Amino acid sequence: MEKIIVRKSEPLKGHVKIDGAKNSALPIIAASLLGTEDIILEDVPNLADVKVILQVLNELGAETEYLDENTVRINSANLNSYQTPYALMSKMRASFLVMGPLLARLGRTETHMPGGCAIGSRPIDLHLKGFMALGALIVENTSVIGAKAEKGLIGDIIYLDFPSVGATQNIMMAATHAKGETIIENAAKEPEIVDLANFLNKMGADVKGAGTSSIRIKGVNKLRGCTHQIIPDRIEAATFMVAAAITKGDVTIDNIITSHIRPVIAKLKEIGCTITEFENEDKVRVVGPDRPRGTRIKTLPYPGFPTDVQAQFMALMTICEGISKVEETVFENRFMHVAELQKMGALIVTEGKEARIAGVPKLKGANVKATDLRAGAALVLAGLIADGVTSVGDIYHIDRGYNNIVGKLRGLGANIDRITD
Ligand code: UD1
Questions:
Q1: What does the pLDDT read at residue 113?
Q2: What whole-number distance in Å separates Cα of residue 303 and Cα of residue 294?
Q3: Which one of 56, 165, 172, 397 would you pick to mutate in the ligand 1 pocket, going by the greatest count of ligand atoms within 8 A of its CB?
Q4: What predicted TM-score, i.e. pTM, was given to this entire model?
Q5: Distance in angstroms (rounded) separating the CA atoms of residues 237 and 252
Q6: What is the SS3 assignment for 169?
Q7: Least buried of 44, 68, 232, 381, by fewest C-beta within 10 Å?
Q8: Whose CA is closest to atom 17 on ligand 1?
Q9: Mean pLDDT by groups of 10 residues along the chain of 421 residues
Q10: Contact present, 112 and 89 (Cβ < 8 Å)
C-alpha cells in the first residue's frame, strides 16, 4: 500500500506549474463521443480519473491515443456500445458524463449508479430530468439507469433546481444534436462549463451564454474534429496557494487564471497573505503571514467559494488565530477530513453543515487517511506544518486529482516522500 510521508517543513519557496483542469478534461473527453472526426486535446492532466474516462471511451468503441504526456487524440467514429461498464462507473462518478453524448449520438445510453468520492448522496435526478425534457424515456431499475430517444432529442427549456455542474454539462452535450433550441435555466457557471462550451463550439456546435445562468444550445446535425487546450486547474492552483499560506512560504504559481479563483484570493488576503498578481501574465505570488487570522467561508456554486477547496482551507484554519467558521452548502457530507485533522491536534466542532475551528499554535504529526480527494490534499498540507511525521494513507484518492503532488511540493522545498508500505 502506498502512503505519503510528510515531515515538518521549512516555508515553501519557488515556482510551481499547474496542470490542465481535471474537471474540464473529464467532460471534454466525454464530449469527444459526439463527433466522428479526430479530436486533439492538449494539457490533459496525467491523473487516475482521466485514465478511467479514456478507458470508458475505449469500452464504447472509441480510439484513444497519447501523442505525448499531456496530449490525447480521440476518434469516436466507430462506437459499438451504449453501455458503460459497471467496473468503470463504480470507480468514478464523472463516468456518468458519457450519458448525454451517447444519447445524442446513438439515441440510447445505459449505465450504472456512479461511484467517486463518498461526499453525500450526489443524486443524478437533474441529469435525468434534463434528458426527459429533451424527449428521452428513462429506463431505471435498482442498479441500471438508461435513457432512450430513438427518434432523436427535441430542444426545450430546462430549469435546474440547483446549478449542478454535471447536469449542466450532460444536458449541454445531449442538446448539441437535438432538434431546435434548448435553454438551460439556472445553469452552473463554473469555468469548466465555459471550457466545455468553447470546445463544443470548436466542434461546430452552437452554444451561447456559457458562464451565465442561461445557456442556449441550437442543435446541429454534425460535429467536426478540432484541437483544444484544457484550461488550468483552479483547484490545484488554490491548493498550492494554501500550501504557501500555511507554511508562511513565498510561492509563485504558474499557469493559473486568477479570475477563476477570486474567492480564494480574497480569503487568503483576509487572513493576512500578500498576493501579487501580474498584469497579462498567468501567474500569482502568494506570501504567507507569520500567523494567519481566522475567517469564515461558505461554499457555494461558482463564483462563490469552491467546495473543492473547503478541506484545504480548513487545514489552514486549524492554525489561524482565533475562531474560524466553515459552512458547506454544496455537499451534505463533506466534513470527513475533520476527524483526521482532529487526530493531528486540530480543535474543530461540527454541527450539521457548519464547522467551528479554534486555531491552535501547532499541529502534531499522526497516521491519517485521505477520506476523499480534497481531504487527502488537506492532510498533506496539514502535515507540512505538523511537528514530527504525518503518514497519509489511502492516497489513491489524491491520485485521482493531483498529478505528482509529492514531486511538486518537494520542488518547493517540502520534506515529503511517497513510499510503498
Ligand atoms: C462537480 C465536480 C466536483 C465539484 C462539484 C461542485 C467534476 C467532475 N466534479 O461535481 O469536483 O465538487 O462539481 O462544484 O466536475 N445534485 C443533485 N442532483 C443532481 C446532480 C447534483 O441533487 O442530479 C446535487 C449533488 O448531490 C450535490 C450538488 O448538487 O449536493 C452539486 O453537485 P454537482 O454540481 O452536480 O457536482 P458534480 O458535477 O458531481
A1: 67
A2: 22
A3: 165
A4: 0.96
A5: 10
A6: helix
A7: 68
A8: 123
A9: 96 98 98 98 96 96 98 97 86 88 96 59 83 94 86 96 97 97 98 98 98 98 97 98 98 97 98 95 96 97 98 98 97 94 98 97 97 97 98 96 97 97 82
A10: yes
Q: How many residues does the chain have?
A: 421
330 lines ligand 1 (CB under 6 A): yes
Contact 338, 313 (CB under 8 A): no
Residue from 162, 236, 260 to probe ligand 1 pocket by mutation (most atoms less than 8 Å from CB): 162
Nearest C-alpha to atom 30 of ligand 1 is from which residue?
A: 331
- Known catalytic residues are 117
Ligand 1 pocket member 30 (CB < 6 A): no
Taking the C-alpha atoms of residue 347 and residue 365, their distance in angstroms, rounded to an integer, is 15
Runs of H (alpha helix) within 140-233: 165-175, 191-202
Asked whether 216 and 207 are in contact (CB, 8 A), the reply is yes
Amino acid at 1: M
User: Looking at residue 83, what DSSP letter applies?
Assistant: B
**Nearest alpha carbon, ligand 1 atom 35:** 164
Best mutation site among 330, 353, 374 for ligand 1 pocket (most ligand atoms within 8 Å of CB): 330
8 A C-beta contact, residue 160 and residue 167: yes
C-alpha cell at 57: 471511451
DSSP, collapsed to helix, strand or coil, labels residue 262 as helix
Q: Ligand 1 atom closest to Cα of 122? A: 26
**Residue 116 in contact with residue 166, Cβ under 8 Å?**
no
Nearest atom, ligand 1, residue 23 CA: 15
Pairing label, strands 347-351, 323-328: unpaired
